[in-house]
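TASK: fixed-backbone design
INPUT:
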């Protein structure tokens, strides 16, 4: 066992984790499972209370119970004081969110966390940055803050490492510990070596070392951009298929039987703080060097247009089959940005709601995992009870691919106005459960089973 691992297990090296949300919580759990002593730092008193009660990270296997067990054993302490946490730790892992505000990159949380860390930074401490960032951010923004407030120089003073998170919500702990090698880069060779030794402790797939921090920052963004562009391609082909009267899903199945074709899933849109955000980081950087990124820009426009496109198709189904539209109610299924997550940030459903309201319809929303959402207008009903949401609805619109929706049958919609009209924006329904039902989906014209 390497000396660093021994020091961590024996609690000689304490780890502070800044940000305990969807990324930081699972990372804290992974280190606790290795026997580390953790100081968890977060500015949200609500989240800290949830962790203390064992009610946080409910959709992440083993995370909530690991954090709660750590508190009971005394290996996890919680605080909102980032400076004190830095003073009392040797390794600081930054997992705070970096997003966009008005299409501008928002580094406020990162700057705040690193400033607090710097004020408690000691010689030979290590700082690991994990959020997805535009290339150059760690060296041009984070490093100057650390050096200024600590009065230390990175070379010979402290370790600075970039290790981008590689987490898929719903299986985060498994991703950290088992599924992928950890990407590691350092400000210098000494930092890189420290990062390699550190991340090997929790990553069973080992580490993949990259020669510079900027390359590692770019690598993480490239992962998301690849998916965004390919989802846009699937959306474009799905619309094309629908307009010429063919079944996209059947064509996709045939195309993907060839090993070099990997058509993604089309749908109501792309949400979350990853895939829609990463292209914007690159696009902003590209503008500074005068490069045109036409493919990425077109992909973003395509994916952002899908909620409006899907609502338009749903309304066509409604108008064609309903006589009285004055009091038409739309039951929207799914608020999460992706299936089986409790996270609704940048969910396409928000745009779906706006489009229906703009066209004069009333809406109600069902989600099995979200019962309250402050981003929704107060007059929009949100419930985890399907019967309440679909009661007297004129049309059912499936926006999120929660697995529970794949098990629905015609009986599930007994309270919906007849004939039963469904727009399946994720093609998740088992169509054999819906005989004599008017269903329309992305990439497939309306049909009756």
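OUTPUT:
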């Amino acid at each position: 066992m390497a000396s660093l691992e021994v020091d961590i297990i024996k609690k000689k090296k304490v780890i502070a984790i800044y940000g305990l949300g969807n990324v930081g919580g699972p990372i804290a759990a992974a280190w606790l499972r290795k026997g580390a002593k953790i100081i968890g730092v977060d500015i949200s008193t609500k989240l800290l209370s949830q962790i203390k009660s064992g009610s946080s990270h409910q959709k992440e296997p083993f995370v909530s119970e690991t954090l709660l067990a750590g508190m009971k054993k005394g290996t996890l302490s919680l605080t909102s004081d980032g400076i004190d946490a830095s003073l009392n730790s040797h390794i600081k892992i930054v997992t705070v969110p970096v997003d966009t505000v008005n299409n501008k990159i928002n580094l406020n949380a990162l700057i705040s966390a690193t400033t607090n860390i710097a004020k408690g930074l000691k010689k030979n401490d290590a700082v690991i940055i994990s959020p997805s960032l535009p290339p150059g951010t760690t060296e041009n923004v984070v490093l100057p803050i650390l050096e200024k407030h600590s009065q230390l120089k990175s070379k010979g003073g402290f370790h600075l490492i970039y290790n981008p998170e590689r987490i898929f919500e719903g299986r985060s702990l498994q991703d950290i510990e088992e599924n992928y090698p950890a990407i590691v880069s350092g400000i210098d060779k000494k930092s890189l070596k420290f990062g390699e030794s550190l991340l090997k402790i929790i990553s069973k797939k080992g580490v993949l070392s990259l020669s510079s921090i900027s390359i590692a920052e770019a690598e993480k963004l490239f992962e998301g951009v690849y998916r965004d562009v390919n989802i846009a391609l699937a959306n474009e082909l799905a619309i094309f298929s629908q307009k010429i009267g063919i079944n996209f899903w059947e064509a996709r199945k045939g195309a993907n039987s060839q090993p070099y074709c990997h058509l993604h899933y089309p749908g109501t849109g792309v949400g979350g703080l990853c895939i829609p955000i990463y292209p914007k980081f690159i696009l902003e950087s590209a503008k500074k060097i005068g490069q045109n990124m036409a493919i990425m820009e077109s992909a973003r426009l395509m994916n952002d247009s899908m909620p409006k496109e899907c609502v338009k198709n749903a309304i066509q189904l409604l108008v064609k089959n309903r006589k009285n539209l004055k009091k038409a109610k739309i039951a929207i299924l799914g608020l999460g940005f992706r299936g089986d997550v409790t996270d609704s940030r940048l969910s396409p459903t928000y745009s779906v709601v706006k489009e229906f309201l703009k066209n004069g319809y009333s809406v109600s929303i069902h989600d099995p995992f979200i019962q309250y959402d402050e981003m929704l207008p107060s007059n929009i009903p949100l419930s985890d009870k399907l019967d309440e949401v679909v009661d007297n609805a004129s049309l059912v619109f499936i926006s999120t691919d929660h697995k529970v929706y794949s098990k629905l049958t015609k009986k599930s919609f007994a309270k919906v106005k007849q004939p039963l009209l469904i727009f399946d924006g994720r093609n998740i329904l088992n169509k054999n459960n819906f005989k004599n039902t008017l269903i329309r989906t992305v990439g497939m014209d309306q049909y009756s089973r």
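COMMENT: The mean pLDDT is 95.
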